[in-house]
Amino acid sequence: MAESLPEHDRILQEIESTDTACVGPTLRSVYDDQPNAHQRFMEKLDACIRNHDREIEKMCNFHHQGFVDAITELLKVRADAEKLKVQVTDTNRRLQDAGKEVIAQTEGIIRCRVQQRNITTVVEKLQLCLPVLEMYSKLKEQMNVKRYYSALKTMEQLENLYLPRVSQYRFCQIMIENLPKLREEIKEISMSDLKDFLESIRKHSDKIGETAMKQAQQQKTFSTALQKQNNVNYGRNMHLGKSRIWESKNEITLKRTFEEEDEHEEEVLTAQDLVDFSPVYRCLHIYSVLGDGEIFENYYRKQRRKQARLVLQPQSSMHETVEGYRRYFSQIVGFFVVEDHILHVTQGLVTRTYTDELWNMALSKIIAVLRTHSSYCSDPDLVLELKNLIVVFADTLQGYGFPVNRLFDLLFEIRDQYNETLLKKWSGLFRDIFEADNYSPIPVANEEEYKIVISKFPFQDPELDKQCFPKKLPMSQSVPQIYIQVKEFIYASLKFSESLHRSSTEIDDMLRKSTNLLLTRTLSSCLQNLIKKPHIGLTELVQIIINTTHLEQACKYLEDFITNITSISQVTVHTARLYGLSTFKDARHGAEGEIYTKLNQKIDEFIQIADYDWTMSESDGRASGYLMDLINFLRSTFQVFTHLPGKVAQTACMSACQHLSTSLMQMLLDSELKQISMGAIQQFNLDVIQCELFASSEPVPGFQGDTLQLAFIDLRQLLDLFMVWDWSTYLADYGQSTSKYLRVNPSTALTLLEKVHRGMKDTSKKNNIFAQFRKNDRDKQKLIETVVKQLRSLVNGMSQHT
Prior knowledge:
This is Exocyst complex component. It comes from Apteryx mantelli (North Island brown kiwi). Keywords: Exocytosis, Transport. This protein is mainly α. Helices cover 78% and strands 1% of the residues. The protein is built from 27 helices and two strands. The termini are far apart.
């Protein structure tokens, strides 16, 4: 019991000190204690309440007297307050009566002051409105005199400075509504001027470009003349005596060049002289002031791109004349000169990035157009003029800061085409020279004629120099003409290589390559075609071989010629050599082959007129007429070969003899020839003897021993076999290297023997002779049959072995 009382005190303290919302947990603890704790807590609570009531009562008793005193004082003050109220009311009445007159006068003053303020306000507003009206009047006047940029500035002042001060007035609202319309009107007018400007520069682009290209060409001419003058001055110290005349001439030339330059400078007009650029400046300023600068830039660039596409579109017939190319280049140069001018005199309308992008687009189109149209050009002079135009075109635009390396790369492509046109032209020249040539040595009657020839062609022959006039040079008239034309070709090729900004070494290399093409392709083709022509005979072929030999020897002089005109030292040059040696060697080989072919064809013609009586009983005792004619022809022909190299003549002679031997063998073995008499064999043997005599007479010098006679060895052994009728020896020695008839093939012998056998049979049937002769024929036929069987066995053995 005693323990629970302090706990109840603690709970009561918590209830008194805690917010009523949080009393719940405290009260719950009362019920969670011992049994009857609730009753005890209630008793304790009642005791606490009673204590508090006693304290309240004590406090009320302590303050009661003061409360009574305060009420008494308030009752006394109420009477004084009533008196004060009466006094204040009276004072107010008297004051109102006294101020009525003052109020009347004051109202009059107020009315005057209001009127005065209104007048002042009106004056102030009029002072604000008058400048607005004056500025608007000024704006109208500027519009009338077409001072649009000043009008925009006036509008800007009106909007930003004057109109905001008087915006509440109706006339100001009307002005504000009209200003956007005036701006649109100015934009439309300035845009119309810009369109006129664009049309103007489109019309004047070719004139502007022509002027710019002329200035660039004059500048280049001036620089070249100045460089020559510097070279003269440099060489003055080295060759003072010899060069004074040349110096004076060059000084006069340079002075004339300066005078011409001054004259042209007075005459030449600039882009500003030809075109009024003020519309584009004005339009740019107007759109910039209106805040539409970007719109104007986009429009201008879009329109110029369209014009660029029109300028870059060539005429379909541009490739026919140089004027077409010149007009095309002038328009393009004029276009980019205008763009360059706009770039440097305006800020932002045209940027370097934009012009570079436009130039790259144009350059690709230009290259494609030139590549296409130049391919139609078949005249080398036109291609050369085109090259000169492209160089001036490139130099002009390079002077304005545009990259032109791709144009010079294109020139190398056009150079290849130029070389092709030159090759075609020179192909015709070579053909004309070959057709006009008489293919005989050049006769010279005196020293003067000789010097004329050697001045055209580098010919040296100490042996010929020792001979007296008149004399003949070994080559024909076409050789010096070909040599001159090759040099002319080199000059023509050099003309294109000039002004390409290439070193002398590169130019030298290009000249050598183009000359190699002329020699290896054009001249070689003309020579090959010449050799194959039907009217070219053996004499002409011999002369062609001699001509190519001298042209081959002249190649080193052509190399020296190229080195001299390009000023390249022989010691330092590392370029391709001329391929003339191989060209002329190939031509000679072709001519040699054609000689062999024509000789064989001529032999075939003689063989075709051979008319053997294959059934004759005995020979005529002399060689056939056709064969003697053939041998005489060969003798006269080989005499012409004396000027040929020995190997060529020997090869031709050997080839002719081998072909003759083969043709005679084929005549014997012809399948259409069914039978041959021994008399025909004897006649044929006489013809072969003549061939052997011809071979042994050394028609061409240089053969060793009986080399040429070996061409007829197959025929000789075959005919000996039949003439001697030595079949036992042939069959016994067959296959041995020491055989007398080693060159006789069993199949060949069998074929000819069968024909002879048939001839004997036919002869025995026709002849009516004594019985003993018929018995001899029968014995011979039996022998032939036996030999035929043995030959067939040999042939079969060879086929099986194979």
